Amino acid sequence: MIEIRHLKTLIALRETGSLVEAAERLFLTQSALSHQLKELESRLECELFIRKSRPLRFSEAGKRILMLADEVIAKVSEAERDVKKLVHGEAGRLYMAIECHSCFNWLMPTIDIYRNQWPGIELDFSGGFTFEPLPALAQGDIDLVITSDPQPIKGVEYVPLFGYEMQIALANNHTLIEKTFLQPQDLADQTLISYPVARNRLDVFKQFLEPAGVEPKAVRTSELTLMMVQLVASGRGVCALPNWVLAEYVAQGLISVRSAGKAGVWPTLYAAVREEHLMSPFVQEFLQLAKAHCLNHLQGVVQIN
């Protein structure tokens, strides 16, 4: 008989890629984990993964059991969430603000799902380029902030949602298209199109241009992502945006993209919450939904453990 512990073990193996790390995640010894897997394979009369493969690869039978694991663990988690709602009540407030100005595309579907599961939670969000959400979070005016620029503020915790690559968007006929990746100096004679926020809050300045002492020829701002992309496509300049934002425009053939440096620039997107609210069931639920939605639907993002 397949047990819940077996399913959790297989999921841990898939997510970590090794017996050692899976055992650590499940608080088991490697010997105990190996014994559990052999026991399950004996019951099923088949091997579930290919021995000595790096990274670990599952057999076809193992992949089928993993499909079962995803379905069952999701249902178990849903039941556990329902019980928490019954125990802790469903009343609460979750006011959100966004510093990542490209996040509306994934935030709204997440909110729609969340509303169905937590109808008693009062939801609202605010944005804008003059609003300072992190101080407002610390003061209790809002409850959660989406940001890629964590600030050391007492009482505020930052939960990683996912990692992404900051890419440089270029017109399809731009001379820099010939390069496989860009160096800071390549932007010295370019107009850089950005959101109207302080430079020290923008990854393209913080992590790419300023460390190299490079200043773009000019800076032009726009509050709208689509407008930035259209300006780039028409040859009015270049812009730096997350890979998952630019992916749809690249697919449409509107623009081309290049990495910032050979290894690229890889920021992390966070959800900032106050310490006392971090473990609230309705806050944890939103964080889990946001992570799952983004990792499943946004192209090019990576999981941050």
UniProtKB/TrEMBL annotation:
Record-linked PROSITE patterns: HTH_LYSR (PS50931)
Compartment(s) of residence: Cytoplasm
Superkingdom assignment: Bacteria
Signal peptide: none
CDD domains recorded: PBP2_MetR
Domain HTH lysR-type per the UniProt entry, residue ranges: 2-59
Keywords noted in UniProt: Activator, Amino-acid biosynthesis, Cytoplasm, DNA-binding, Methionine biosynthesis, Repressor, Transcription, Transcription regulation
Main location: cytoplasm
Pfam family, one: HTH_1
InterPro entries (alphabetical): LysR_HTH_N (IPR000847), LysR_subst-bd (IPR005119), MetR_PBP2 (IPR037406), WH-like_DNA-bd_sf (IPR036388), WH_DNA-bd_sf (IPR036390)
Family statement drawn from the similarity comment of this UniProt entry: Belongs to the LysR transcriptional regulatory family.
Name this polypeptide is given: HTH-type transcriptional regulator MetR
Originating species: Cellvibrio fibrivorans
